[in-house]
Branched-chain amino acid ABC transporter permease
Amino acid sequence: MKTLSPLQRDDLLCLVLALGLIAIPLLGPSNYLLGQITLFVLWAAVVTQWNLVFGVAGILSIGHLALFAAGGYATALLGVYFDLSLWLTLPVAALAGLAISLFMGLTTLRLRGAYVVVMTLAIAMTLYQIIVTDVACFRQSQTVCYSFSGGARGLSRYGDFGFRELLGYKWIAIGNFYVAVAALVLGTLVAIAIIHSPYGKAFQAMRDNEVAASARGIEVHKYQLIVFAVAGLFTGLTGGVYAGVIGTFGPQVLELPTLLFLLSMMVVGGPGTVWGPILGTAALAFVDEGFRDLAEWRNTGYAVILIIMMLALPDGIVGGMKRLAKSIPLGNVRAGGEQ
């Protein structure tokens, strides 16, 4: 029997993932549960792209949510001020994420380590401050004044994907869920293709030893911009989908708790791996649901679970699964069927 290549294996797993997610609405979950699953599908899409920069290429960027915010605001602003269909805003959202990502890549080209952390975080926090301090009256509705970006309140009433008219009220949540699944599957397929391509090998070489990679002819600056561009494009697209699905978009997505929550998903799953971000997101989704009725203990619970995970599985869930697989003794089967 022919053995599947790593690329074929991951493509097959992506197909299984897609089919599994598509089947979820058929199980009849409540609208609340389906909404929670939709949210975590979108977070998985974001973390999958962040993993390309942080885990695969080894660039310590922690300002990734700025790309997500750029896409979300592009969709929301176009809906508010131009009344565009949200479907038409998604390409613009992707380009907005790409623009911020390239800016972030250019500003960190000559920086390494902690300096990249500080610069990327500074860019995200600057964007946050620009939004929350936007209080000037830009438009007026009856007696209420609204700022251009919505300020700390964010933006709403910019439209949706039209599932209410197309499918009926009861099917809105299912329609939104499938849009989120499409964003995750598309981003995952791209991530798989990149990781198993020569570009992926170049990114991993940069991560493992940048000096050696440069000595072997890899143009580090060029590949750094490429990985930022790819991640920015699909993260911006996911931000646009998030804005359309949730129906409101504000600066809360740039706040530190959200950043740490998504970073934890990557760390728990296993940075630098294909499936680590998705497994980490799934794990923390269960944790989040478990603490739903214990809001005051939520942050403490996350901290304890992360500490346990880091001690028990320092290389994440995927790394733990690989070590477990290697530890299982397998008998050598001879050609004649004898052991």
